[in-house]
Amino acid sequence: MKNIPFPSALFQQNRERLTKKLPPRSISILNSNDIMPTNADGSMGHIQNADLFYLSGIHQEESILVLAPDAVDPTQREILFLREPNELLTIWEGYKLTKEQATDASGIKNVKWLHEFPAIFRMLMCEMDHVFLNTNEHQRSSSPVQTRDARFIQECQREYPLHHYSRLSKLLYPLRAVKSSFEVDAIRAACDLTRKGVERVCRFVQPGVNEAEVEAEFAHEFIRHKGQFAYSPIIASGINNCILHYNSNDLNCKDGDLLLLDVGAGLGNYASDLTRTIPVNGRYSQRQRQVYDAVLRIFRAQVAALVPGKTTKDLRSECEQITAKECVDLGLLTMDQVKQSTPDNLAVKKYFMHGVSHPIGLDVHDATYNHLKIEPGWVLTVEPGIYIQEEGFGVRLENTVLVTENGQLDLMADIPIEAEEIESLMNS
Ligand SMILES: [Mn+2]
């Protein structure tokens, strides 16, 4: 990932917001993500821990952030520990941050090298009572691999068993959900890059192109603007429309088929998330258009439904209700089937089986808890769909939307979504 600079004020502000929620004599410790190995001497690219980045703006591996707002020595209240650069490291791995650069990026004045961590940490632990440690609490996270934070939790609790331990995520996730103006601008820039990709692809697609070529068009547009895919793109033509997480992206697009594009650009550390379903030959068939317009109506209704006070679960059940009605109008379900639905056995799930909104920001599926209620400043996706296996196609539409005090701001409002707009772009 290419580093897009943010003002250090963003991270300073984030630390202040967290500090206000901490009880007296607290210490919080956050670790970088590991660089994951592949085979032989290979490794994957480094993806920074989003919580550490949120509080420091630091991209580098093996970094540790320590926050102890009540430390007796005022210089110890915010400390960043980094790998010490040396000539060998620079030759093999490239440039590592100097202390001055780390201060510029983070606003943290006290930057130390990693070898100084144990002694300073011990001193602070002896002063503090409450320890806040970082965990990944996304409900669908299922990695068997232990993170650096998880290893640290074990070491820390073994070394200091009588401290009072708490989960930092409980405090941090509600903060991360409410985006600052810096963050909204960053997400908006990612959305704008997604727009460039969509426009390019709509002009490119025609019968016979391969899904892989379509993916490459997006990649070209994203990478030349210093962005990347925010997540593995789904480029799914024909019946693959109905496979929710299809990502083999290697079939030829056939005349008469629909092509589902679930693709978002990431820029700096921020993500965007979009889905469009376009006709391979540039014109929707009558039936495709019927389904498309139904999904677009649901989309419009669900954007308007993004109001403070609701949970994403509330949004999902509202969406299920209106999707069920549209499925009746499309002849997919009968009124009786809809009426006989029970919460555990919704008829509409045959055609719409996923959630309609998730928060987005540093992560595509951003840090959240199900019980959190939407507040102004949240950025969420809106992504209804109708998937008709028996007719061999599905339609999903998705934009990234900001919730404001008095409504919603669709950050992708300028990306074509009406069927006619898509057709005219494809035929231009
Ligand atoms: Mn999404």
What does this structure look like?
The protein is α+β, with helices and mostly antiparallel strands. The chain folds into 2 domains: 8-176, Creatine Amidinohydrolase, Chain A, domain 1 (3-Layer(aba) Sandwich), CATH 3.40.350.10; 181-426, Creatinase/methionine aminopeptidase superfamily (Creatine Amidinohydrolase). 36% of the residues lie in helices and 17% in strands. A 6-stranded mixed beta sheet has the order 4-3-2-1-5-6, with helices on both faces. A hairpin with a 4-residue loop joins β14 and β15 (393-396). The protein is globular, with a radius of gyration of 24 Å. The two termini are 33 Å apart. The structure holds manganese (II) ion. The site of manganese (II) ion (MN) has 5 residues, from loops.
